[in-house]
Design brief:
This protein is an alpha+beta fold and 93 residues long. The chain has a domain of 64 residues. The chain is built from three helices and three strands; from the N terminus they run E-H-H-E-E-H. It has a three-stranded antiparallel sheet. Strand 2 and strand 3 form a beta hairpin. Helix 1 packs across helix 3.
Length: 93
Amino acid sequence: MNEAEKPSSEGTPPACLPAHLDKPRLRREHASEYLDVVFGITIAPATLAKYVTIGGGPEFQKVNRTPLYPRQSLDAWAKKKLGPLICSSSQAG
């Protein structure tokens, strides 16, 4: 089955990311930009830095003193922050 014959239920195509965001791990500034471009979540790099100390942010790895955020952990964190779709403000969410 070629690309044109695939049913639309198989999901959406991956986003076309700029080259500096299309890496397996991102530095804090690029992680902030990635969250904004892909999920519409605006979060400052300084806030990500704060989450490193108090918790509640996406998982990261360190190389020497440099935090690197795997894109998979940014995706998981953003989906958790967004929560489920709701139809009314009266619905629990």
